Every structure is written in structure tokens, then in C-alpha cells.
Amino acid sequence: MPRSFTPTAVVSLPRVDARDAVALASAVEAAAAGQQGVPPYVLSAVAQIADDRQALQKAIAAGPPAGAITKKEADRVEDLAITSLHALLLAWGRLEEFLPEAKGAQEVVERIFKDGVSFVNSRVEKEWAIIDSKLKTIADEGLEAKIAAVGALPILEFLKQTHATYGAVIGTTDAAADPVEVGKHREALLDSLRVYVMRASGLVERNKPETQALADALLRPIVEWRSTKPAAKDKAEGSAAQPGTP
Fold first, then answer.
1. CA distance 221 to 231
2. How far apart (Å, rounded) are the C-alpha atoms in residues 68 and 70?
3. Which of 31, 101, 105, 151 has the greatest number of beta carbons closer than 10 A?
4. Whole-number mean pLDDT of the chain?
């Protein structure tokens, strides 16, 4: 198989979402502006980064397309689905003395909701994990039949669908895709950053330490990148991305 030396094949960038890509690009632009003696071919790469960053910012500012679900909305629907299931089973459980279906509902409540539903106030990653465990317990222990017996199966199925969407939106499962326009501009910006890395790295000449120092300064924002997101926050985004090296 022939070797490839394209920027995409050679340069490994930090994993960033659209907003982090903007922040990373801004840091690169600032680093280049603060150095003397940057060759024109590197400066042209910086200019392209600036153009692509501005285009991405405009796409982000335009907002998600109609119908795209936000994290806040996904959290609201997940909370509504799980608390509705709990409420219906709890209501049936009050009749456990009289109806076998009600006894089954109470058994599900005691197994799945013995501590109530206060977990919906947890940070999003923790809430998702708790509900995920409850859904696995329902499946593994065959509790769906007892839920179906009191007519709650549609709520359970809705919860499963909501849970998958919730995980994607908060990034616990497969990451939710950027809107098409945002994704397109993000990829263009990342391509420009890769070209910049190759040009800045190419400045280094043997026995000329000043060229290594200049390349290091130009690449420092990428080498030392840390995500701008908080590591943990109630009902907010989760862990930071790890840095990459060119």
C-alpha cells in the first residue's frame, strides 16, 4: 500500500468539537501573531485558519437546524419519561393487595425505584448511568412482563428511545453529530490547522536551534491543548478532551 503524506494522514490533532476548534484556532492565531520572523508561507496558513474560524463561528451562531434536540431538552424528556414510569407503577402498586398485576408493579417499584427518583437531579452523566443500569436490570431480570401487565410498556419503550437520544446528546454514548453546516466548517478548519502544523514543523533546520524554538512557539497551543469544557458540572457537559501532538 503506498504511503500517504497528506496533512490528514500525517498530522494528529486534539479531539475537539466545533466550539473547541474555534478556541484552538484562536490560540494558534495569537501564538503566530506574537512571533517575529514567521515566514510568509506559515502566515498564509494562519490567514486561512482565521478565515475558516470565522466561517465556523457564523455557522455555530446560526444555531441548530429546526428539530435538533438540545441537551436541556433531552434532559427534560428523559426526566419526564422515567418519572412517568415510576408514577404509573407506584399508582398500580397501591392495589397490590387486590390485583396480581398491581403486585407485579409494586415488585418492580421495589426493585427499580426503591430510592425514588431523586437521581433526576444528578449531573447528566450520573443520571444517564443510573437510568442505564435500571434499564439493564429490567431487561436482565425479565421485569418487562410485569410492566406490560399494567399497560406501562409504551412508556418503557419511549424511555428506551429517549435514553438513547440523551446519551448521544450528552456524549455518553456515540457523540451527537454536529449540524451539517457546522460539521462542514469544523472539518475545513481542522484541515487548515493540519496544514499549519506541517508548515510550522518544516521550519526546523539542523544545527539552527532558533528554528526549533520558533516552531515550538508556533505549535505550543496545539501541543498543550486542553478542552475549554469543565470536567464536571451539574446538568452540563462532561470530561475534557485529551491533548494531541502533531
1. 20
2. 7
3. 105
4. 87
Question: How many angstroms from the chain centroid is the CA of residue 245?
Answer: 21
Pick from 139, 91, 147, 137: which is nearest to 112 by CA? 137
Assess contact for 59 and 22: CB atoms under 8 A.
no
Classify residue 165 by burial, with Cβ atoms within 10 Å: 0-12, 13-18, 19+. middle
Whether 22 has a pLDDT exceeding 60, the answer reads yes
d(CA 102, CA 110): 12
Report CA torsion sign: 205, 206, 212, 214.
Answer: negative
Radius of gyration of the chain (CA): 26
Q: What is the pLDDT of residue 240?
A: 34
State the amino acid at position 14 in one-letter form: P
pLDDT band of 239, cuts 50, 70, 90: very low
- The distance between the two most distant Cα atoms of the chain, rounded to a whole number of Å, is 90
Q: What's the rounded Cα separation, in Å, for the pair 220 and 243?
A: 11
Gap between the Cα atoms of 25 and 202, Å rounded:
19
Q: What 3-state DSSP class applies to 93? A: helix
**28-86 per-position pLDDT tens digit:** 999 999 999 999 999 999 999 999 999 999 998 887 665 567 888 899 999 999 999 99
Cα 204 to Cα 196: distance, rounded to the nearest angstrom: 14
Cβ atoms of 75 and 166 closer than 8 Å: yes
Q: Give the three-state DSSP class for 198.
A: helix
**Spatial CB neighbours of 131, under 8 Å, sequence gap ≥ 6:** 78, 82, 119, 159, 163
Q: How many CB atoms lie within 10 A of CB 105?
A: 26
